[in-house]
Amino acid sequence: MKRLLLGIGLLPVLAASGSAETWQATNWMAPAHILNEFPYQQFAKDVAEATDGAMEFEIYSSGALVPAPTTMQGIADGVAQLGIVYPPYTPSELPLNNTVNDLAFVAKDDLAAAFAWTELALTNEKIRAEWARNGGIFLGGYSTPFYNFICMGEIVSPKDVAGKKVRVAGTAQTEWIQSLGGVPVSVPIADVYSGLERGSIDCTLSDATNLDKGNKFWEVAKTVNVLPQGVVLGATYVFNKDFWAGLEPAQRRVLLDNIALGLARSQVAYHVGVEAALAGSAERGLKIGEPTQELQDTLAAFQAQVVEKLPAKAVAERGIEDPTDVLEEFVALEEKWRALVADVDRTDADAVAAILKANLYDKIDENTFGVE
């Protein structure tokens, strides 16, 4: 409460400190996408309101300012002061971050994974150093909901995947589909609808919000199997290093508080979106199937191999030092956050944000973080 009152007391200082400043924020998703609407569009409004217009972000959507694959470079170069970064687009620049993303295939709780990933990247010196080397300051991340089979034909048992062309995202998903005898296909998410429609792919591994939000897979797909096949992690808020260091502490505190709220709103929207998408798909005649025990056991066995083999694999293929300590920290943090969010109403963004602030963002010192 003391920090909240202090922040309120600083607002007149921000408003009176000079003319309003407008900065550029880049988001390669459409304005209505969950990862744009809440952590960018609404975030910008909230920051402007909290500072009486003294701090404003102009949001460039759909890659209008910087395309997705070069967002990290655009932030480093100061083309944008803020952007959303998906580490797999820059595997050579962010190898340790991508290794953590590989481990997300074994995540148990998407909300806990989002906040574990966020805490890890805010506090682990190796992860922080990797962002810093690329000219960025990581300040918050997201987790997608669990990936499911969205297909033209029904997936009931592991053998049903054999020979199927399945759109995948990331190394772990690729190897999982290969282990089942399927054919992993890497195509942009925007091409999945037409691929399913034309028969160039049989299935996609996607989170259920893609059934309705934007991509409208429910218009062409026939079945969904809700087997939880991991999540995908990304960096919702990456700031230019020099920009962040040049802000006043009061400005950084305003951003930190609103980042916590933006992350909570995003994850709540994902949670609500999954339920709505599955219900809407069933109403449209798609068959929504639960995983059989055989399918669950096959996945569990594969996930155990991921955990066992990932450190050595990352050293050999990504050229990094043994990441075992970082991966173990992520697993421990996910368990910590699973306990913290166990009883929260996952449809209440304010309640989720309160937990995130109390256990993480309120502990960040706006006077020193990112400017040491």
UniProtKB/TrEMBL annotation:
Is Signal one of the keywords UniProt gives this record? yes
The protein's name is TRAP dicarboxylate transporter-DctP subunit
Q: What InterPro entries does the entry give?
A: DctP_fam (IPR018389), TRAP_DctP_sf (IPR038404)
Q: Which residues form the signal peptide?
A: 1-25
Q: List GO BP terms, alphabetically.
A: transmembrane transport
Chief site of localization: periplasm
Localization per Swiss-Prot or TrEMBL: Periplasm
Q: Which UniProt keywords apply?
A: Periplasm, Signal
What are the coiled-coil residue ranges? none
Record organism: Paracoccus denitrificans (strain Pd 1222)
List cellular component terms (GO).
periplasmic space
